[in-house]
Design brief:
It comes from Elysia marginata. This is Integrase core domain. The protein has about 160 residues and is of the alpha+beta class. It has a domain of about 50 residues: SH3 type barrels (Roll). About 25% of the residues lie in helices and about 15% in strands. A five-stranded antiparallel sheet has the order 4-3-2-1-5.
Length: about 160
């Protein structure tokens, strides 16, 4: 128990007198601790490989989207900054906002999750507007006695 109490209990007067510390010993201890922190912090880091000119990449999705957009690096602006061309527009992006891709992957048409949901909703709407009666059984929720249905089950 190396801590001294901060109250009015009796204590030896020598504990209250200031002590000089050895600065060399303190510096060695300080830098040793700092190196240890650096070692454990750097373990989880990885280096991002630099991108070259005309390299196919993918841009991080913007707000409201979940799709990494195919683009091409058009220039290197700094150690981590790149000029990226997307549909005749040029953007400045940091290295961590782009990932390397391939020509073949960039040529493929990827369907976003939003587009899939939109198609599913259109398909359901077409079925309901077909003029045929709905023959699907009603949704019945069977719950144990005394248990209420969660809010997301309620309509």
């Amino acid at each position: 128990m190396g801590r001294r109490p901060r109250n009015l209990l009796l204590a030896v007067k020598e504990l209250y007198e200031p002590k000089a510390i050895n600065s060399e010993k303190f510096c060695k201890q300080f830098y040793k601790t700092k190196e240890k922190h650096t070692f454990y912090y750097d373990r989880k880091l990885w280096t991002l490989e630099p991108q070259g000119n005309h390299t196919p990449v993918r841009l991080q999705p913007t707000a409201g989207s979940k799709v990494w957009t195919p683009a091409r690096v058009s220039g290197i602006l700094g150690p981590r900054s790149y000029a990226v061309t997307l549909e005749k527009r040029t953007f400045r992006r940091n290295r961590r906002h782009i990932i390397r891709s391939t020509e073949q992957a960039n040529k493929q048409n990827f369907i976003s999750r939003d587009a899939v949901d939109h198609e599913a909703n259109n398909f359901d709407a077409k079925l309901n507007n077909s003029g045929l009666p709905d023959t699907s059984p009603p949704l019945v929720e069977v719950l144990p006695a005394g248990m209420k249905a969660p809010i997301y089950f309620c309509r």
